[in-house]
Write a structure and sequence with these properties.
- The protein is an alpha/beta fold and 429 residues long.
- The protein has 14 helices and 13 strands.
- The chain has helices spanning 8-20, 75-86, 96-108, 121-136, 176-179, 190-199, 223-233, 253-258, 284-287, 306-317, 321-344, 370-374, 378-389, 411-428, and strands at residues 42-46, 49-52, 57-60, 114-118, 140-144, 182-185, 202-207, 237-241, 264-267, 278-282, 350-354, 357-361, 393-394.
- The strands form 3 sheets. It has a 7-stranded mixed β-sheet, sandwiched between helices. Strands 1-2-3-13 form a 4-stranded mixed β-sheet. It has a two-stranded antiparallel ribbon with strand order 11-12.
- Helix 11 packs parallel to helix 14 (411-428).
- The protein is globular and about 55 Å long.
- The two termini are 20 Å apart.
- The structure holds pyridoxal-5'-phosphate.
- Pyridoxal-5'-phosphate binds at residues 120-122, 125, 148-150, 208, 213, 241, 243-244, 268, 278.
- Pyridoxal-5'-phosphate is lined by residues 120-122, 125, 148-150, 208, 213, 241, 243-244, 268, 278.
């Protein structure tokens, strides 16, 4: 594999993009600033591989940040989208596909009896919060440092990389009034959770059950049970943001693996199969507060879009029990390959993994909270990423993100990846 890929066309597009798109991109992490290089413009992709506009081919571990659990351009998903497009792209009226998708979600996630579809995870978490506030008559929210729930004003405090202290607006333009109702505690800190509940009346506690936006930092034993217990004892709702984990880590998401049922679940990414779709859902009594069944207003011109629903439904139908076993095996092979490679080159790295997700942390021990994730060696991670990109492997360009292996990653892809990983660690050591 070449170590000096050409990037003339990406560079030319980036120069044009900088004139018309802030930072040259439509979502910040794509700019690759965190790893000290310019963005790579993609031309096309198939399976586990993406090809950039200069013709360089990479084994992709971003996979659109999670939706592409079957890899890129899966023929059945593409066919479903094309067939849907030929019937019309949007009607602003209900379709059969939305009912099918809602039924498929409810079958997989017993805590979700009804869903409302949206176009993005951000909208879904914003709407779930509105519902929780309406249902409890309370306004305060508990969230965790380093957890990301979309760019919702009230949740942008300590929402992953580079964000500031508790309750202070983390982005200019977010009024203090919006974050005033948000209390932030450390992930895996049971005492802080108990104290926050003692000091506040919460509408809801919001958690990624397997946080993956500070890098992957799974819960310690019993932590999700503690959240369930505290919410029940104190009249608050438990909201799981399963935008990443839903239908990825297991058929029924992290709530199935961990045996903890939330009151509301926020979903996205995999349920759109690479098209814009997300949803929130829960028990019937709660969800029937949503208009027009109830009085909590929420709407969307493209919500339940036929193309997105077709992609999502086909994606879910291809995810049977053997598929999850296979994804788990692929993830474990990659995680142990990364650990072994780091070990044999004497690089201080720890890898957190759950089926379908992993993060490479440059630290002796894996972080268990946001402070731990921040303390990792981000310069070393950046150098590692640059070295992998130069060898045809495309990792998430920030240590505050997860790698997304897919069902399209074969053992040949893993071999290519681990060759590049070994060379990259050798360069770093
Ligand atoms: C990606 C993500 C969101 C936001 O979804 P968008 O579709 O990007 O708005 C929310 N929560 C989590 C856990 C996510 O990873």
């Amino acid at each position: 594999m070449s170590v000096s890929l050409t990037d003339a066309k990406s560079a030319e597009l980036y120069a044009r993009a900088l004139q018309r798109l802030p930072g040259g991109v439509n979502s910040p992490v794509r700019a690759m600033q965190a790893i000290g290089r310019d963005p790579i413009f993609i031309d096309r992709a198939d399976g586990a591989e993406i090809v950039d506009v200069d013709g360089n081919r990479y084994v992709d571990y971003v996979c659109s940040w999670g939706p592409l659990i079957h890899g890129h351009a899966h023929p059945e998903i593409v066919a479903a989208v094309v067939a849907a497009a030929h019937r019309g792209t949007s009607f602003g009226a209900p379709t059969a596909g939305e009912v099918d998708l809602a039924e498929e979600i409810a079958r997989r996630m017993p805590s979700v009896e009804m869903v409302r579809m949206t176009s993005s995870g951000t909208e879904a978490s914003m709407s779930a919060i509105r519902l929780a506030r309406a249902a409890t008559g309370r306004t305060k929210l508990l969230k965790f440092a380093g957890a990301y729930h979309g760019h919702v004003d009230g949740l942008l405090a300590e929402a992953g990389s580079g964000l500031a202290t508790a309750g202070i607006p983390a982005s200019p333009g977010v009024p203090e009034s919006a974050t005033h109702e948000t209390v932030i505690v450390g992930w895996n800190d049971g005492e802080a959770v108990a104290q926050a509940f003692a000091d506040n009346e919460f509408a809801a506690v919001l958690a990624e059950p397997y946080p993956a936006n500070m890098g992957l930092v799974p819960p310690v034993e019993g932590f999700l049970d503690l959240l369930r217990h505290q919410a029940d004892e104190n009249g608050a709702l438990l909201i799981f943001d399963e935008v990443i984990t839903g239908f990825r880590v297991a058929e029924g998401g992290a709530q199935e693996r961990e045996g903890v049922a939330p009151d509301l679940t926020v979903m996205g990414k995999v349920i759109g199969g690479g098209l814009p779709a997300a949803a929130y859902g829960g028990k019937r009594a709660l969800m029937e507060r949503i208009a027009p069944a109830g009085d909590v207003y929420q709407a969307g011109t493209l919500s339940g879009n036929p193309l997105a629903v077709a992609a999502g439904l086909t994606t879910l139908r291809l995810l049977d029990e053997p598929a999850y076993l296979r994804l788990g095996a692929i993830t474990e092979a990659l995680a142990s390959g990364l650990r072994d490679a780091a070990g044999s080159h004497g690089v201080a790295v720890s890898v957190n993994s759950v089926p379908g997700l992993l993060t490479v942390f440059f630290a002796e021990t894996a972080p268990r909270d946001y402070a731990g994730a921040r303390a990792c060696d981000h310069e070393a991670y950046a150098a590692f990423c640059r070295a992998l990109l130069a060898r045809g492997v495309y990792p998430p360009p920030s240590q505050y993100e997860a790698w997304f292996p897919s069902l399209a990653h074969t053992s040949a892809h893993l071999d290519r990846t681990l060759d590049a990983v070994n060379a990259a660690f050798a360069e770093l050591a």
